[in-house]
Amino acid sequence: MNLKKEKLLLFATASLATLLVLLQQSTAVDRFVTNARETSGKSSGFASADSFQAWARQMFGHDEELRSKARAYIQEEARKRYVAPINAKIDRVWKAVPGYNGLEVDLEKSLDAAQAQGYPDPPPLVYREIPPQTGLDQLGPHPVYKGNPGKPLVAFMINVAWGDEYLPQMLATLEKEGIRATFFLDGMWLSKNVAMAKTIAEKGHELGNHAYSHKNMSTLSRAQNETEIVKTEKLLKEQVGVSGGLFAPPSGDYNQTTVDVAHSLGLRTILWTLDTVDWKKPPADSIVRKIAARVEPGTLILMHPTASSRDALDGMIRSIRSKGLQLGTVSEVLSPQRIPEVESPTQ
Fold first, then answer.
1. DSSP per residue over 78-95, as a string?
2. Which domains does the chain have, with CATH numbers?
3. pLDDT band at 11 (very low <50, low <70, confident <90, very high)
4. 173: confidence class by pLDDT, cuts 50, 70, 90
């Protein structure tokens, strides 16, 4: 091998060794130099081990300087972009209101990402969520009427106690728009419409408990409350294979006994924020106007499988999205998890 080729090979060897160390994020320069000295007589490509040591220290020093600058930038941005978590609370009007995760910059992961990208200017920021100190589960047995007002997510809660003629079209609209809703099923209806219930579940929607025979729960004894809820819960589990952990009392009628019984069975009692009142057969455009005027972050929208809601569904979805809100299930609205696509700070 001629001298020129040998020098090129030696230089490539030294460069590769340095690159490997940098990729390993090592700051142990002395250990790297010691190892290099051991092979310097064979393949260092430098005039002496001392010159190689000086070169290596310069390279690592540059890396540390870039990391220091990146750290200072990330720390400053972290102070600006911090969002405090919001605790769940009991509201005089809305009863139990879910908490909402905060948001902060993860310093170490941001530094690692910056190094992996060669320390771009500005460095990337990696976020992590901060859970609140008080969550919904810590509030005890209370009904929920809405999600956290800081979370830009809305849910359709569809109570099903009669008929199925409008469900296929409603499901088709939800599927076309990529939306998952929550369907609360009456037990008597479910016992006669297991195939439809399975179809709803297979399409990715959430299923909840709507008691068994559509009685006013506040007029029932504790044992009767339990019977109504348990019979439907058994059908959901055995016939459909699901249990959403949610209970919507028929007609919105309940008392504390109802809430306590549902809680003892592992179910959260859910009411609504906005009612389409579709059972009165209003024109679809009036439902759309009502939703457009009143919907806000955390809204739970009540409807039923009726012609009015079927015809209003497209318009409701458009009006909700026009306000920068997304649509999900009731459980997603109640979750403290953030909606990063909408609200994570941009760089």
1. HHHH-B--B--EEETTTE
2. 3-78 (no CATH), 81-136 (no CATH), 142-343 (3.20.20.370)
3. low
4. very high
